[in-house]
Specification:
Layout lengths: L8 H6 L1 H6 L8 H5 L5 H23 L5 H39 L3 E4 L2 E4 L3 H32 L1
Antiparallel strand pairs: 1-2
């Protein structure tokens, strides 16, 4: 029971993706919560912390594991996948900064849409969207692919 009270890093970092694999569908609340203007990112972080705190309890109740060692192996895999996603996201963010800096220089020209003049300086928004897409894609791919790799490492 003391292990159920430990913080679950996989649930915290991977959020609703972790929830789908662990039959903890309450984590899907993170999707609409993160879309709330202005306060969405704050509430999304609160959700991530909540998932980390409650993740082990939810998983142990919702998924039938052969024993506690099997449970720990499964959650360790998600924690490693979460770490890889964080590192990959940081890498893509650092790589994409120069790319979007170049786009920014081209985006300074005014554009005319239905007689309204505005500047298409959307590089920061594009950078954020790019990183969100890359993170979601990486989280899904890594979560699916990492299980056989870790199983080989454990043997």
């Amino acid at each position: 029971e003391k292990y159920l009270k430990k913080f679950n890093w996989g649930a915290c970092i991977l959020g609703w993706i972790w929830g789908l694999f662990n039959k903890s569908y309450i984590t899907l609340v993170q999707i609409p919560v993160s879309l709330i203007p202005v306060v969405g990112p704050f509430f999304s972080i609160v959700c991530a912390i909540w998932f980390g705190i409650k993740g082990n309890t939810w998983t142990y109740k919702n998924v039938n594991y052969a024993d506690f060692e099997d449970f720990n192996k499964s959650q360790r895999k998600f924690a490693i996948a979460g770490l890889i996603v964080v590192l990959l996201n940081l890498f893509t963010f650092l790589i994409s900064l120069p790319i979007f800096n170049k786009i920014n220089t081209f985006a300074q020209a005014p554009i005319n849409f239905s007689n309204q003049l505005f500047f298409a300086n959307k590089s920061i928004e594009l950078l954020v969207i790019f990183n969100i897409i890359m993170t979601l894609f990486a989280a899904f791919v890594i979560t699916c692919a990492i299980s056989p790799i870790i199983n080989k490492m454990e043997k």
